[in-house]
Amino acid sequence: MLAIQVNINILLLVALVIAAAVLGYLIRSSQIKSLNKKIGDLEKEMLASHAEILQLHRDKIDLMKTIPEPVIPVIPITNGIEDKNMEKLPDGTIRKKLLSTTPVIKQQSGS
Q1: Where are the domains of the chain?
Q2: pLDDT means over runs of 10, the chain (111 residues)
Q3: With the C-alpha atoms ordered 38, 39, 40, 42, is the resulting torsion angle positive or negative?
Q4: pTM (two decimals)
């Protein structure tokens, strides 16, 4: 017979399982604490950078208020010819009304 006999102490097995679970819990909790600390540091850094950007925007607005706006004449791009042509075009709604109605055709008498 090729049977191998193994004697296992049940209490020792339970103790090993509990010790492994506690060790895994401690390792994972230390990893979570480390990651939470990194997240906190990154959040502080982001808040600091956003505050710096807001401060720069405030400084820019203050500088824009102190600098007077230059008076530059605005030259229109369109010329008057195009505007006059637009006024001469006929109204398209009348044409649409005429085309959308059904024509009344009277019968002619044939002679």
Answers
A1: 8-72
A2: 80 96 98 98 97 96 87 74 62 73 64 54
A3: positive
A4: 0.47
Inter-CA distances, 73 with 54, 68, 70, Å: 33, 15, 10
Q: What is the 3-state secondary structure (H, E, C) of the chain?
A: CCCCCCCCCHHHHHHHHHHHHHHHHHHHHHHHHHHHHHHHHHHHHHHHHHHHHHHHHHHHHHHHHHCCCCCCCCCCCCCHHHHHHHHHCCCHHHHHHHHHCCCCCCCCCCC
CA 40 to CA 47: how far, in whole Å? 11
Q: Distances in Å between the alpha carbon of 57 and those of 45, 46, 47, 66, 79?
A: 19, 17, 15, 14, 40
